[in-house]
């Protein structure tokens, strides 16, 4: 959500005094390396419009399965959390311009993660597909408490770039 945080702060003409920079970057190299290593994603998508929340909820809806994600594995910059708290946004709904989400077979997960970490040390396995078929995304915090991660509703930040 770094890019979304930058856009939100600019739109509100709010000087935060934070070191918040867009995460915009090319994903070509990392994706090509995954493919050349034989990683076969079930699906993958950039997390731009609607952020992580939109991606996961689309996948749950179209796959007809539930997705469980572990909040402690989702890295959100402190600066982004601050912007979200200030303006009342869900950090998982903000745009990420240099980030993608990928679902791979469990057998390839560690190999994929190793490659991803060559490009981004913060890459993580954030969740799993569950047997339940309610088409929802559930987020679990460090205390094992769960809540639904709803799809983005209402007006998302307008595209300005």
From TrEMBL:
It comes from the Bacteria. Residues 1-135 form the PurM-like C-terminal domain. Pfam families: AIRS_C. GO terms for biological process: protein maturation. This is Hydrogenase expression/formation protein HypE. It comes from Campylobacter concisus.
């Amino acid at each position: 959500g770094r890019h979304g945080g930058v856009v939100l702060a600019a739109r509100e003409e709010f000087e935060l005094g934070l070191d918040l920079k867009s995460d915009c970057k090319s994903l070509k190299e990392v994706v090509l390396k995954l493919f050349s290593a034989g990683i076969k994603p079930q699906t993958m998508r950039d997390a731009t419009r609607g952020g992580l929340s939109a991606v996961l909820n689309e996948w749950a809806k179209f796959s007809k399965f539930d997705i469980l994600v572990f909040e402690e594995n989702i890295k959100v910059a402190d600066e982004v959390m601050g912007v979200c708290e200030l303006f009342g946004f869900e950090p998982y709904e903000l745009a990420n311009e240099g980030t993608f989400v990928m679902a791979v077979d469990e057998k390839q997960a560690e190999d994929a993660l190793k490659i991803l970490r060559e490009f981004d040390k913060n890459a993580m396995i954030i969740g799993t597909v569950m047997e339940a078929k309610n088409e929802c995304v559930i987020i679990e915090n460090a205390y094992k408490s769960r809540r639904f991660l709803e799809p983005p509703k209402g007006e998302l930040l307008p595209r300005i770039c």
